[in-house]
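hiii so um. not sure if this is the right channel but i have a protein structure encoded as tokens and i wanna go backwards to a sequence. like what aa goes where. can anyone help
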């Protein structure tokens, strides 16, 4: 296929990806004009955003970068890739940048769609990329989680066949907050990479220093890792993410873009560079997330609401025994975000906000329980 045609197809595919409305789970609650006009400020716990970010250093850097926004971001692009490579012990040729990791997940799906086959993923997991994958002709086979709400790695391995082109593994998993230990992950990747490409989504590894598999990149040409500045670095709206893979794979992915690495703006990348230097802020966010999550989980335990211990910035819990519909009840008290991710299931995910916000959530739940 000619490069021009590849680029044209990529454009249509990425357009469908950007327009996809099928996010992971039930529809996101919205902040209505009525709320805005009344001046009420809801507690927003719907998308696992960092309530403290971006960091002070990142804010200053982004403000200063506005003045250079008349120039293309080529030089900053190279600087950010080099800095990321320093952290992961890779060269900049092992890295490609995007407007958040979501754009890059779509790019990997676009690549896989040209290989003709299907993708394996857990159910539930992060699904934002799935509508675009289907439109590209990449069928998705979903593997139910284990009883402990972990990715069923054994069943995923058993499901790989001659038509499997891609295995998507979100670790820690969203929406459950569960993660696998280093040895289990490495064993799975060793086996799966023999047959197909493995895409590991590591959006939440930074919160609890969950094991990353970045060190396996040099060993496996079929391994791709997606990471983001949206979570612990507090830059969800700035849209900066990156992929790690061997240079040959990175080159193949870049060839499906009209302009490789052009997703993040100069402003966003300056913020990302500064965020990597703000170690005090990252430590603060980790500690505050831990404290706020404990407040919420202690409240759930007091109400006898089952929950999954989480190594992320959200909690997955079962509202079956609660007297009211938790999403509706919380929303009536200006707390937005509790929603289901499994069909006909009473399990819900709620993002972790500040300690004060989670104290309010527990207070409201205890009033209604």
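sure thing!! here u go:
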């Amino acid at each position: 296929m000619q490069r021009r045609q590849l680029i044209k197809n990529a454009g249509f595919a990425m357009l469908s990806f950007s327009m996809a409305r099928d996010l992971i789970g039930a529809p996101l609650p919205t902040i209505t004009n009525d709320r805005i006009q009344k001046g009420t400020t809801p507690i927003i716990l719907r998308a696992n955003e960092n309530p403290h970010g971006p960091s002070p250093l990142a804010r200053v850097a982004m403000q200063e970068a506005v003045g250079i926004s008349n120039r293309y971001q080529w030089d900053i692009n190279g600087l950010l890739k080099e800095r990321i490579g320093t952290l992961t012990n890779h060269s900049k040729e092992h890295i490609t940048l995007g407007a958040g990791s979501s754009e890059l997940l779509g790019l990997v799906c676009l690549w896989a769609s040209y290989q003709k086959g299907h993708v394996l993923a857990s159910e539930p997991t992060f699904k934002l990329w799935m509508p675009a994958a289907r439109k590209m002709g990449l069928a998705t086979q979903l593997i139910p989680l284990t009883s402990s709400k972990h990715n069923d790695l054994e069943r995923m391995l058993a499901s790989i066949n001659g038509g499997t082109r891609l295995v998507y593994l979100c670790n820690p998993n969203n929406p459950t907050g569960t993660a696998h230990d280093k040895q289990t992950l490495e064993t799975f990747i060793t086996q799966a990479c023999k047959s197909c490409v493995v895409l590991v989504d590591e959006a939440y590894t930074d919160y609890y220093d969950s094991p990353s598999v970045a060190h396996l990149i040099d060993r496996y040409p079929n391994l791709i890792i997606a990471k983001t500045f949206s979570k612990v670095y507090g830059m969800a709206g700035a849209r900066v993410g990156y992929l790690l893979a061997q240079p040959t794979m990175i080159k193949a992915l870049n060839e499906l873009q009209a302009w490789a690495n052009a997703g993040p703006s100069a402003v966003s990348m300056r913020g990302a560079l500064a965020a990597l230097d703000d170690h005090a802020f990252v430590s603060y966010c980790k500690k505050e997330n831990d404290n706020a999550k404990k407040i919420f989980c202690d409240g759930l335990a007091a109400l006898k609401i089952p929950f999954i211990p989480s190594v992320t910035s959200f909690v997955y819990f079962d509202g079956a025994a609660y007297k009211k519909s938790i999403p509706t009840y919380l929303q009536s008290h200006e707390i937005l975000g509790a929603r289901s991710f499994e069909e006909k299931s009473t399990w819900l995910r709620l993002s972790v906000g500040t300690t004060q916000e989670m104290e309010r959530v527990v207070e409201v739940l205890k009033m209604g329980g």
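oh and Residues 30-52+279-368 form a domain with the Aspartate Aminotransferase, domain 1 fold (CATH 3.90.1150.10).
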